[in-house]
Design brief:
alpha/beta, single chain, 337 residues, five-stranded mixed sheet, Nucleotidyltransferase, domain 5, 2 domains, 42% helix
Amino acid sequence: MHKQIPHVTVILGIESTAHTFGVGLVEDGRVLANHEDMHRPVEGGIRPSEAATHHREVGPELVKKAMIKRPDAVAYSASPGIGSCLKVGTELAQKLAEELGVPLVPVNHAISHLEIGIHTTGAKEDDVVAVYVSGGNTQIIARSGVKGWQVFGETLDIALGNALDKLARQLGLPHPGGPKLEKLAERAGTSGDLLDMPYVVKGMDLSYSGMFTHATRMLARGESPERVARAFQEHAFAMLVEVTERAVAHTGKGQVLLVGGVVQNRRLRDMFDIMCRERGVKCLAVPPEFAGDNGVMIAHSGWLRFRKGWMLKPEQAGYFQKMRVNEEPYNLLAGQE
């Protein structure tokens, strides 16, 4: 679908891939509104049906709060994510586009994290190794010529954010557990011996499931929660830094960009800062307000694609639970009439 592009472009973005429903509004790269609401399970992890119900309940009001200007298009996270959550966001975006008489712009959630990081830090897209760490993803990504974004390394099982949250639940910490686990690890201090943990790096990939199992066994034996939390972070983060350092050496890139919710962890950023200084490369991190899932990043990516004419009619809306970082949902949906 193609139309004449307005000189000034306002895009509404809807994010609904997991526990957070977010709505953002941007005008030619400038943030006008950013509202979000997170589903917080009473116990355990995310239950897809409960998260979808939450999104359905809070979504319309968040859209109303964010839409302080009439958008020229509605962007939405079309993939990857939890199916029931994606469905809620897609249907709301479709309904809104129909009511406003504007096109839809489908966005790859993972690419959106990269693009908001580049936009807010001034990173050079062709000179950056991106470290994408969240509850559902742990990937080392860089652009590779005409192939675009390529994954150079990733977790072989659970994502780093998921591993941190799972360990936090073992300790009785409420969701989201990562930030609370970080505070627990800080209480252990930096003196004293570091507990041994499995360190699983296989080439450019890594694994966290064995480390999590080992940590739960240590807790069952009566080991201090603070010491276990500290050891878990130190080993898990060191593995990620090691794989990233290899990617920097292999690609010759001059910048490392940290994106995703887990990069709000201060210790993680400190370890990357040290590695980057030693290698003589620049370390950049997305601002905290755009690190976790949010509507602004979807709106920004939608704005970039809208300017290229990558638009759909509302009836072409769709979503995909799985999608790699080098895939565009627009390309898969544009042929549907």
